[in-house]
Amino acid sequence: MAAPTEQVVGCVEEAAAEEKPRILEPGAAPFGNFPHYSRFHSPEERLRLLPPELLRQLFPRSSETRPILGLDVGCNSGDLSVALYKHFLSQRDGETCSDATGELCFLCCDIDPVLVERAKKECPFPDALTFITLDFMNQKSQKVLLNSFLNQFGRSVFDIGFCMSVTMWIHLNHGDHGLWEFLAHLSSLCHYLLVEPQPWKCYRAAARRVRKLGLNDFDHFHSLAIRGDMASQIVRILTQDHGMELVCCFGNTNWDRSLLLFRTKQTTETQPIPESLIEEWKRKEEVTNLETVRWESIDTNKEVVKRFHAES
Ligand SMILES: C[S@@+](CC[C@H](N)C(=O)[O-])C[C@H]1O[C@@H](n2cnc3c(N)ncnc32)[C@H](O)[C@@H]1O
């Protein structure tokens, strides 16, 4: 394991790789399929930024009981999926809601079958979390597998998607167009989308690591035109090209990754954002370093997105 100081300033992917990457190709984790990823980028570090009641407030229960459907893309061995599930069922005091059974159902997918098998075996909530092996970039199997899950609930889209520390791996392996398409699919599949993009320094670290291992560079690394401030780039693609709107930036993790919540403009037109969340996010804005929350403030989000576009 890397020295703690190096982990704090460096990139978690690099730290994870130093702990014996799992083998798909000798010595590599070419998709970010690290076997113990959560040891380096802990679920708690992300959860502490997210209000536990977030989903209950975004999707208030109506008289018809229908579960909130979540899609976790790039779930690895499921540690974060399970932690998100527990977190969103809990109250502020950490207690689990008593009437929570059946409230949330997640479909969690990963390209690495070994990680998915581990996730299935270790999942404490097998009725609520379904793990499948899926290369999300394979459109055909993506459509079949996701639809078969959604059909069970008579639905055609997910309420919320989670895309946590995955965008870089899609980008490195599929190039600019691949990243653009990936975000297009996600935005068409989910009303809300929570994204944790890896910053550009992680791209350099990943490229350095494959070089150190004597492996070929990522096909696309040198030709990527989408680069630099990756959080801003992802905001730009989702809001300008894919009809989403930035709702909130929940701040940054210790690893310098922002947690960004988007929703489709269609959702914006039909569902107002709950007042309580607006208040919560205003409060957060007051206590958070403004430098790290350039796009925060839900009630002025249109203005903020406009400003963001003007700056980028
Ligand atoms: C760095 S890990 C992040 C794991 C987890 N989301 C988290 O934040 O703790 C990235 C995950 O994305 C998965 N992944 C990469 N490309 C993928 C693809 N095309 N389809 C599905 N999963 C993919 C990798 O196998 C890996 O488990």
Automatic annotation (TrEMBL):
Under which main EC class is this enzyme filed? transferase
Q: Name one GO biological process term.
A: methylation
Subcellular localization, as worded in the UniProt entry: Cytoplasm
> Which species does this protein come from?
Erinaceus europaeus
Lineage of origin: Eukaryota, Metazoa, Chordata, Craniata, Vertebrata
What does the record give under GO molecular function? Answer: O-methyltransferase activity; RNA methyltransferase activity
A cellular component annotation (GO) from this entry = cytoplasm
Q: What is its EC number?
A: 2.1.1.-
Q: Does the keyword DNA-binding apply?
A: no
- Name of the protein: RNA methyltransferase
Q: How does it assemble?
A: Interacts with DICER1; the interaction may be mediated by RNA.
The protein's job, in short, is:
O-methyltransferase that specifically monomethylates 5'-monophosphate of cytoplasmic histidyl tRNA (tRNA(His)), acting as a capping enzyme by protecting tRNA(His) from cleavage by DICER1. Also able, with less efficiently, to methylate the 5' monophosphate of a subset of pre-miRNAs, acting as a negative regulator of miRNA processing. The 5' monophosphate of pre-miRNAs is recognized by DICER1 and is required for pre-miRNAs processing: methylation at this position reduces the processing of pre-miRNAs by DICER1.
Catalysed reaction per UniProt?
A: a 5'-end 5'-phospho-ribonucleoside-RNA + 2 S-adenosyl-L-methionine = a 5'-end (5'-bismethylphospho)-ribonucleoside-RNA + 2 S-adenosyl-L-homocysteine; a 5'-end 5'-phospho-ribonucleoside-RNA + S-adenosyl-L-methionine = a 5'-end (5'-methylphospho)-ribonucleoside-RNA + S-adenosyl-L-homocysteine
Q: Which UniProt keywords apply?
A: Cytoplasm, Methyltransferase, S-adenosyl-L-methionine, Transferase
Q: Which family does it belong to?
A: Belongs to the methyltransferase superfamily.
- The keyword Iron-sulfur is assigned to this record: no
The Bin3-type SAM domain covers which part of the protein?
53-274
InterPro entries to which the protein is assigned, alphabetical: Bin3-like, Bin3_C, BIN3_SAM-bd_dom, SAM-dependent_MTases_sf
